[in-house]
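Data deposition worksheet. Section B asks for the primary sequence of the deposited chain exactly as it was used as input, without tags or linkers unless they were present during the calculation. Section C holds the resulting structure in token form. Section D is free text for depositor observations; keep each observation to a single sentence. Incomplete worksheets are returned to the depositor.
Section A, Depositor: J.P.
Section B:
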Amino acid sequence: MHALAVLLKKDKQVLSNLRRQAREQSVFKVVFILFFAGGMLAGLWYMFLEGFRFLSALGGIGVMLIHYLFALFFFGLGLMLILSNIITTYTTVFHSDEIPFLLCRPIMPGEILLHKWLETTLISSWAFFFIIIPFIGAFAWHERLSTLFVLWTFLFSIPFVLLYAGVGTLITLLLLRWSPRWRPQVWIGAALLVLIGWGGWMLFGAGKLRTDDAAFILERFVPGLKLAAFPLWPSAWVAEGIMALSRNQWLRGGLLFGVLLANVLMIGLLVEGLGSALLVRTWQRTRAGVLRVPSAARPGVMALEARLAFLAPDARALVSKDLRSLLRDPAQWIQGLLFFGLLGLYFFNLRNLHYHMLSAVWRNLIVFLNMFSLSAVMCSFCSRFIYPQLSLEGQAFWLIGLAPTTMGRVLKIKFLASLVGMLAISVVLMAVSTALLNVGLRVWVTAISLAVAMSLGLCGLATGLGAVFLDLKQRNPMAIISGFGGTLNLVLSLAYMTAAILPFGMLYHYYTLGRIGDRVLREGTVIAAAWLIVITLAAVLLPLLAGRRSLMRRDY
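Section C:
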């Protein structure tokens, strides 16, 4: 394990260099990040605290739910960690310039994969702790627990994160090694087999499981609770272990912690063993698939390009280039699928969660909370993918400058192309959300209008500011996003999102509570609609005009 120690020492030096670079960042960026992170933590803590108070107000059912929610909370986070580590492992292992260098050194492939497992765990775990800190803090405050409870939770969280990160690493390795290339029928068949197996297990396995009477009753109120509390799931070990230590049951808590630790060590052995056997072949297979991209193997792209024949030649060429660039980098479109896939999965299961059976107040509140969550994902997506579009053209940007088109038209095409994609996603998701919640035509029209306005404003901000703060020397999209322009774009996007949604949300909430009547609602809706039009036009026109002026003044 000497090689692993050397690699970890290298990571320590990298973190030290990053810390020195962070000191050179602008004060505005540092203050905004700290302010935003503190506000998010405080907001999540207050939201979780209000949720615990609401459950306590329900009486006996609420008290039982609070303790079982720990298993459900860790179960959901575990699934998200697996998905996150699948994407992160694909990027840090199979699309990293470091791997060819390491494979030429006297280091076993298993040790390389073991090191990458720890690295991806560190990369993906910050979000886990960002969510769990306010959740645990709110629970400890509500239950009047000591600070040792937070310590026990942190103690159990470390092996929990390592365990699920290791599962994601192994899934990525096995999929890339054995999955067939470009065979949709095989993938569809595999997905059907997984669904049939899951359905059979739920019908004949999990459906027959009886944990205790409380869990059996609570399953009717919270779908998935029985599965999360299944005794063989790590989420149940973590929840029960934390509760045992908080009740001074040291032997049971230590036993469950030992079970978690033993599984982490087993995952480590599997990562090292399978890495030694499969990493080199899998890496070669992946890189061969990346380098060999014949046009004949892209019938879907060619068919899509054929459907763009109605566009002008310059617009068709730019859109086709962006589509090919996106599809050649699976790390990008996989992140896009993850961004909206989980959100879509939640929206399409609103009926299964029985949200449509709630009162009008709660259904209306859920609609606007869904709008906030969709808009937040759109902000992140536009900042990650749309803002750095022009900068990623790099040193070849002069080719666009010599093309038979203008920079203003290039900016317009970039904006419209991103807008079409955002509209297709946001309108469909909000239409599904409002339809499944049965909120009525008026709220449906408002939600769809907000989705259209969000797409316009966020795409306008990202495209325009991306042109204003153009950086052709940087090839790393994360470095482009983390600059002053990327930070400003994120600030303005979040401010626009809040200013656009909040007036409508407050109006309909007070209306469903009975505090305002129909006349006040109509007048308020007109004022809020006028306000939405003004800020949307400002978010679209001002950045695009500034970006066009910036591009026209540059020399290429």
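Section D:
DSSP finds 21 helices and no strands in the chain.
Residues 250-291 form the longest helix (42 residues).
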